[in-house]
Specification:
The protein has 358 residues and is of the alpha/beta class. It has two domains: 210 residues, Quinone Oxidoreductase, Chain A, domain 1 (Alpha-Beta Complex), CATH 3.90.180; 129 residues, 3-Layer(aba) Sandwich (Rossmann fold), CATH 3.40.50. It has ten helices and 19 strands. Strands 5, 6, 7, 10, 11, 18 and 19 form a seven-stranded mixed beta sheet that branches. The chain has a six-stranded parallel beta sheet with strand order 14-13-12-15-16-17, with helices on both faces. Helix 4 crosses helix 5 and helix 4 packs across helix 9. 48% of the residues are buried.
Length: 358
């Protein structure tokens, strides 16, 4: 099968922008297109023929070493496809089922966190496309307890961004402890935020949404999707925020969001790593009982709840598709902030030597 493989750590070059990681070799092509054997599902696992795979900022973090994966690794953790083979002991799903795979690839199931439904905090947590090979490929294996039924009202390509950008954005929204009628700020407006604004309008119809983003295209998209105000982070929105969620990879959005919070407000940081430093002053940013909370990974329940919301609400997904072999191009555009919504990779045709009915 064809797969895009990461064999080391690199800085993804962005023409016209200064380098941030001089210790890493720069490259336009960090992922290598290779032929590798189709993986065999083990006990409790399924083999999935991938039809769509979302592209995430976390892949950039992995390539640039902020979140170090196993090396070599096949990245990608937003897969949609059909099960073509099952390993021993699989009972919950069957061959032919259309399923999705997300960031949580496995957890121990027996630690304090796992038994309380917080497997995202499990010390032995394994992430898809990082600790386990992911979906930048024609096929992947996944544990049956960590695959999800895809809502029937979504095509494969539009469903892929639900599995990370949407689901982990939903976890951030839950952690923000929003009440209807609050004013909620969203910093950044990419694959995650453009879904979550729709969820806010659905779950909290009397709330206002303020969007802070540098991209003119993203500002226009935010307005199309119902933002009550959208503008540059350097501008002052018409009112202060009760809650804020930061979706950006840069550090300066955190102090800016804290400045805009009302006393007692909460900021949830919905990224795994930041590319630039975070500088906070106690009196200016943290005083008056303001809170900062981070999102760590995601639980299976978050994904199930979010897919059910998507089934009921039919969240509009803005996305662009790229061939699997164009993954490096999609990553460069994502790093530049030039993806409007989400990017989705489409693998080549199925491996002809594998019978999907077996």
């Amino acid at each position: 099968m064809k797969a895009m493989v990461l064999r080391g750590f690199y800085e993804i070059e962005v023409p016209g922008e200064p380098r941030r990681h001089p210790e890493l070799p720069p490259t336009l092509e960090p992922l290598e297109l290779v032929e590798v054997p189709v993986p065999e599902p083990g006990p409790g696992q399924v083999l999935i023929k991938i039809s769509a795979c979302g592209v995430c900022h976390t892949e950039i973090d992995e390539i640039e070493g902020r979140r170090k994966p196993k090396i070599p690794v096949i990245p990608g953790h937003q897969a949609v496809g059909r099960i073509v083979k099952t390993g021993g002991g699989v009972r919950r799903v069957k061959v032919g089922d259309r399923v999705g795979v997300a960031w949580i690839g496995w957890a121990c199931g027996s630690c304090t966190y796992c038994v309380s439904g917080l497997e995202n905090l499990c010390e032995n947590f394994k992430a898809t496309g990082c600790d386990l090979d992911g979906c930048y490929a024609e096929y992947m294996v996944a544990y049956e307890d960590y695959v999800y039924s895809i809502p029937e009202n979504y095509e494969d390509t539009e469903a892929a961004p639900l599995l990370c950008g949407g689901a982990i954005g939903y976890r951030a929204l839950k952690l923000a402890n929003v009440k209807d009628g609050m004013t909620i700020g969203l910093a950044g407006f990419g694959a995650s935020a453009h879904q979550i604004i729709q969820v806010i309008k659905y779950l909290y119809p009397n709330s206002k949404v303020i969007v802070l983003t540098r991209s003119r295209e993203h500002i226009e998209l935010a307005k199309e999707l119902g933002a009550d105000w959208a503008g540059s982070p350097l501008e002052n929105p018409p009112e202060k925020l009760d809650r804020a969620i930061d979706f950006t990879p840069v550090g300066e959005t955190i102090p800016r969001a804290m400045e805009l919070l009302k006393p007692g407000g909460r900021l949830v940081v919905n990224v795994i790593r930041k590319r630039t430093p975070i500088n906070l002053e106690y009196t200016k940013h943290l005083w008056m009982e303001k809170e900062i909370k981070t999102v760590a990974n995601i639980t299976r329940n978050d994904i199930k709840e979010y897919l059910e919301i998507a089934r009921k609400k039919k969240i509009k997904i803005n996305y662009q598709t790229y061939k699997l072999e164009e993954a490096n191009k999609a990553l460069r555009l994502l790093k530049q902030g030039k993806i409007k919504g989400a990017a989705v990779l489409i693998p080549p045709k199925a491996h002809k030597g594998l019978n999907p009915a077996v």
